[in-house]
Every structure is written in C-alpha cells, then in structure tokens.
User: What shape does this take?
Amino acid sequence: MPEVLKVSADSKPKAVAGAVAAVLREKGVVELQAVGAGAVNQAVKAIAISRGFVAPNGIDLITIPAFTKVEIDGEERTAIKFLVEARNPR
Assistant: This one.
C-alpha cells in the first residue's frame, strides 16, 4: 500500500514535490489525494516539479489518475488520486 499524501488548494506545490520525491526515493511509489479543482491543480503542479527533483537520480515518473472516495467531516466525497511511481527503464 503506497504512502498517501493529501493535497489541498492551499498546499505549496514545491513542498509537496519535495515530499513526493522523498517517498519515491524511499519506497518507489506514492499516492496523492486531492478534493476540488484547486487541490487537483496543486497536485498536478507538484508532480511536475517532483520530476525535476528525481531526474538527477535517473528516475522518470509515471502518474496514474483515478477517482476514489474519501470521508471528510463525516461526509463521503469524491477525490482524485494520483498514483506516482518510477517508470521502469526499457
């Protein structure tokens, strides 16, 4: 089960990217969850920035987006999850 990072509209993309890069280097896979357009925007920016952080280590990323259900304040909400993992070299 990948580590889950929750991204909000107020998240700083560079900080999230640093967390993504750290988890990727350690575990090889990380999941970002975002609810709402602003949060999804910050998550996508963070993924793009994290590519630059891990590229010097010879790591290229793939991202698989999907829907998931999350509970927020007792309410079920639909979130977008991004499964980010290192691409296998060919």
In short: Helices lie at 13-27, 37-54. The chain has one domain: 3-86.
